[in-house]
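Table S2 (continued). Query chain:
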Amino acid sequence: METLNDKLKDKQLELEYPCNWCYKVIASEADTLKKAVHDVIEEREHKLTPSNSSKSGKYVSMNLDLLVHNEDDRTFIYDALKKHQDIKMVL
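Corresponding output:
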């Protein structure tokens, strides 16, 4: 049986830039996450909204929505968020 992953294999995401993009960012605390996002995107216009927290309360996630100008911009933000010491994961 062919899966969606099989169909999308070797295909690159095609986007029209600029476009709005949403990153799901996960950290240990909401305030820490907010500060980490600010460290990465500085004064760039964005919207940060609560998403989920783990059952144990050990992790929180938030959605980061912002305008990305091109593929390099989108991947740069993703990589910078991933590399921040206070961010556990970026989706």
